[in-house]
Amino acid sequence: MTRPSYPLSLPAENPLITLTHPKKTLWIIELHNGQDARLTPELIDGGLKPALDAVERSWRDGWRRLQQTKDQDGDAPGDDGKGALIIVGRRDQDKFFSNGLDLTRVVNNPNFFPITYNPLLQRILTFPIPTIAAINGHCFAGGFMLSLACDYRVMVDGSKRRAWLCMNEISFGSNWPTSFGRLLRSRFGSGQLQRKIALEGHRFTPPEALEAGMIDHIVAGGTKEVLQKAEEVAAEWEGNARGGVWGLIKGEIYRDVLEGMMLDVRTPTPISDDAAAKARL
After folding, report:
1. If you average pLDDT over residues 141-163, what whole number do you get?
2. Interatomic CA distance for residues 167 and 194, integer angstroms
3. What are 243-261's pLDDT values in tens digits?
4. How would residue 273 be classed by pLDDT, with cut points 50, 70 and 90?
5. d(CA 80, CA 64)
6. Which tens digit of pLDDT belongs to each residue from 81-116?
7. H helical segments located in 33-140
8. What pLDDT is stored for residue 109 in this prediction?
9. How far apart are CA 274 and CA 252, in angstroms?
10. What is the mean pLDDT of the chain?
């Protein structure tokens, strides 16, 4: 199979994400659907999913080389088998990581959660290398859930430009899919925190989110600085991918979440089934 040349912009006819490979052990996905990186079926099915495939293929090439070069003691020099992935909002601004789902494209689409969005969350939750969300601005709703699927979260501290983490569906009367509730409960065991996020729609400042354990680091500055910190986190944990079990262990940790995400109801019709096939084929 032909390996991608970088940068890789997807979908090819109307790029909404860009995948770069700045060093052997690191891949970066930039979301750039408009200024606020709204998540659409095209961005997910035509952008994020094939980008994740490209990253995994490239990492597995190195991991297989690692298996071939190990000596009798199990040691192997070099970077083969190491790897980490960063997801960041549009790089030329410091206002948004993602403003969430494009509801006009989602509300009447019975395929969106069971066929498009939930499989994306499942893929990231079980991805075989460490994943870091570089939250370079506001992170709302579906964008917040995307960040929660990642292993680590690094966020701007809000000193340069205001930034919030928020699940705001309560404010405009949009129900949650099963996947949102399962993922939230897997990350935060506190009922009070769950209530504050889901039912009160609280807009968490970065310091509040750090104190609540919603993110791992906050960084002064903007996109450049948050990416630098995300790369430090990637470098710290990329070696743990060498054992080949990072994703396998996560599959056990999040088994209930992954199974629960399959409970979102889909009532197919010939039209919706054809739309799902079109996205898949």
Report:
1. 96
2. 10
3. 999 999 999 999 999 999 9
4. confident
5. 8
6. 999 999 999 999 999 999 999 988 887 888 899 999
7. 41-43, 49-69, 103-106, 118-125
8. 86
9. 33
10. 93
Q: Measured between alpha carbons, how far is 196 from 270 in angstroms, rounded to an integer?
A: 40
Domain map (residue ranges) of the chain: 8-63+79-280
Q: Give the pLDDT mean for 17-32.
A: 98
**Percent of the chain predicted with pLDDT > 90:** 80
Looking at domain 8-63+79-280, its CATH superfamily turns out to be: 2-enoyl-CoA Hydratase; Chain A, domain 1 (3.90.226.10)
Closest CA to 144 of 195, 94, 89: 89
Tokens (6 digits) for 156: 């701007």
Q: Give the type of residue at 276.
A: A
For residue 1, is pLDDT > 60? no
Q: Residue 143 is inside which H or E element, if any?
A: helix 141-149
How many Cα atoms within 13 Å fall on the side-chain side of residue 246? 27
CA distances from 235 to 70, 122, 135, 239, 276 (A): 22, 24, 18, 8, 38
Contacts with 187 (C-beta within 8 Å, 6 or more apart), sequence order: 148, 214
Cis-peptide, bond into residue 119, ω within 30° of zero: no
Amino acid at 78: G
Contact in structure between 177 and 114 (CB atoms under 8 Å): no
Q: Which two tokens stand for residue 193?
A: 């925190």
Read off the DSSP letter of residue 35: T
Written as six digits, the tokens of 205 are: 């400042």
| Residue range 77-90, pLDDT digits in tens | 689 999 999 999 99
Tokens found for residue 209: 């989110």
